[in-house]
Specification:
This protein is α+β, with helices and mostly antiparallel strands and 230 residues long. The chain folds into 2 domains: 82 residues, Protein of unknown function (DUF541), domain 1 (Translation Initiation Factor IF3), CATH 3.30.110; 100 residues, Protein of unknown function (DUF541), domain 2 (Alpha-Beta Plaits, 2-Layer Sandwich). It contains 4 helices and 8 strands, in the order αββαββαβαβββ. The strands form 2 sheets. Strands 1, 6, 7 and 8 form a 4-stranded antiparallel beta sheet that branches. The protein has a 4-stranded antiparallel beta sheet with strand order 3-4-2-5. The longest helix is centred in the C-terminal third of the chain and has 24 residues.
């Protein structure tokens, strides 16, 4: 009886093995790229003060930060669009004077959704007492829409590549997709700087000096696809 069971299991395994067929396929990669002009920016500014007493340094820093936050609010930026990113108060040793001092600093991130306000806002921030502008990251308010477009372009690119390869093979064509793998980066958009032209006003006079090179941002999608060969 035991031998009979083993024979039956072996026979079933043989039938299964015969039924498994290798599916001819081709694996390719595709890239979709969308270039757009950004309409938003993330601006990161910092306030920092140094002194001999911790309480004094913190108080001075807090006073400037208060001015900065009130200024941002006065410029019509919603409270949801600006946020404190980092607050520090620490003791620091100055090797030149051989003495300790205290450093207080705070960084604030501002989501500016109207780039026409950029120049005026930056000048006001400097006047309010910030020490540095730590970075400006350009963004698009339609990022999800552009990501979708980039993914579709990546799939079309992958299919075109597969058809190019198969076109030289007699009697074969590209069939349905078996496996699709998204290899897109998550840290885009990355800035691609371009020169901005000075625009003329209706009366022929020149616009005020531009200080922001917006350029373009690239939204990129990468995909790997395995197609059936028919």
């Amino acid at each position: 009886m035991k031998n009979l069971v083993m024979i039956l299991l072996f026979s079933a395994g043989m039938v299964q093995a015969q039924e498994v067929k290798t599916v001819p396929q081709i694996s390719v990669s595709g890239e979709g790229k969308i270039k757009v002009t950004p309409d938003e920016a993330i601006i990161t500014v910092a306030v920092e003060n140094t002194g001999k007493e911790a309480a004094e340094v913190k108080k001075k820093n807090d006073e400037i930060v208060d001015k900065v936050l009130k200024l941002i609010k006065q410029r019509g930026i919603p409270t949801a669009d600006y946020q404190t990113q980092r607050v520090n108060l620490y003791k620091n040793y100055d090797y030149n004077t051989k003495k300790y001092n205290y450093v207080a600093n705070q960084t604030i991130s501002i989501h500016l959704k109207d780039l026409s306000k950029y120049d005026k806002l930056m000048m006001d921030l400097v006047d309010s007492g910030i020490n540095s502008i730590q970075g400006v990251e350009f963004k698009s308010s339609k990022i999800k829409e552009y990501e979708s477009q980039a993914r579709k372009k990546a799939m079309l690119d992958a299919k075109q590549k597969a058809e190019d390869y198969v076109s030289v093979l007699a009697g074969q064509k590209v069939g349905k997709a078996l496996v699709i793998s998204d290899n897109s980066f998550t840290n885009y958009p990355r800035p691609v700087y371009a020169e901005m032209k000075t625009m003329a006003m209706a009366d022929g006079s020149a616009m005020p000096q531009e200080t922001l090179a917006i350029g373009e941002i690239e939204i990129i999608s990468n995909v790997s696809v395995s197609f059936v060969l028919e």
